[in-house]
Amino acid sequence: MVDQLTLDLSLPPPTYAREDFVVSSGNREALAWLDRWPDWPAPALALSGPSGSGKTHLGRIWAARASATLMEGSDLDGKTVPDLLALASTSPAIVIEHADRAPERGLFHLYNLMRERGQYLLLISEAPPAHWHIALPDLASRLRAAPAVTVSSPDDELLGSIILKQLADRQLHAGAGVVQYLVPRMERSADAARRIVAALDRRALAESREIDRRLAIDVLAEVSPKEGK
């Protein structure tokens, strides 16, 4: 029954290992910049792209390599210079998600502290810093000097590859046409691919069904009702 899909066993947390990242034309340049570290021309790199494009995964790959602290831009709210000095003293590198939401003075002081120490920042946001509304001229000039790289939304080839990898990781076999049906109709994100494959797995097990196009239609209608039509 369809209702069984709503008895959702919680999805395991996503894995952000380097080997789980599927490389494509839309993210290859960004990955190359992260691999280039620490040979960056500035103490910061700005990584931008739409929701679901893999920015967080890229950030975690770099964090593992650089032993970086993970933060949200809002985590800098209310931080004093001594607070930021303590942070810089214990963090050889820092990843800031939603960096465009960080208070400008906090981000400016943190940038300066990391630069003075020869340490690094990865600033992640949907829009590149050139499109942020920055009132502090000194911060704007710092960010203009930092390299900026953009990742794009997954294309059909990448989404198909992600689905196939998720299926393989679960040791599942999908019948002909399943991936081709899902890709043009699903939400354009790696997370959506992960949710859909998890739903296919649960539904196939609960109903003793093969993972075929008919099951894909049912699952997509349940997980993404609009796309499933």
Could you give a quick summary of the protein structure above?
This protein has eleven helices and five strands, in the order ααβαβαβαβαβααααα.
Read across the widest sheet, the strand sequence of neighbours is 2-3-4-1-5
Query: What's the domain count?
Result: 2
Can you give the helix content as a percent range? 40-55%
Cα end-to-end separation: 19 Å
The count of DSSP E runs of length 2 or more, i.e. the number of strands, is 5
Largest sheet, if any?
A: 5 strands, parallel
Low-confidence stretches: 1-10
What CATH calls the topology of the largest domain is: Rossmann fold
Output the radius of gyration.
21 Å
**Assigned CATH superfamily of the largest domain:** P-loop containing nucleotide triphosphate hydrolases
Please identify, by name, the CATH architecture of the largest domain: 3-Layer(aba) Sandwich
* Helix-strand pattern: HHEHEHEHEHEHHHHH
Mean of residue pLDDT? Answer: 89
CATH class value of the largest domain:
Alpha Beta
SS strand fraction: 5-15%
Counting DSSP H or I runs of 4 or more residues, the number of helices is 11
Shape: elongated
Description of the structure:
This protein has 229 residues and is an alpha/beta fold. It has helices spanning 3-6, 28-36, 55-66, 81-90, 104-116, 137-145, 156-169, 178-182, 190-207, 213-223, 225-228; strands at 44-48, 69-72, 93-97, 120-125, 148-150. It folds into 2 domains: 3-14 and 154-228, Helicase, Ruva Protein, domain 3, CATH 1.10.8; 25-150, P-loop containing nucleotide triphosphate hydrolases (Rossmann fold). The protein has 11 helices and 5 strands. Strands 2-3-4-1-5 form a 5-stranded parallel sheet, sandwiched between helices. Helix 4 (81-90) links the parallel strand 2 (69-72) and strand 3 (93-97). Helix 4 (81-90) crosses helix 5, helix 7 packs across helix 9 and helix 9 crosses helix 10.
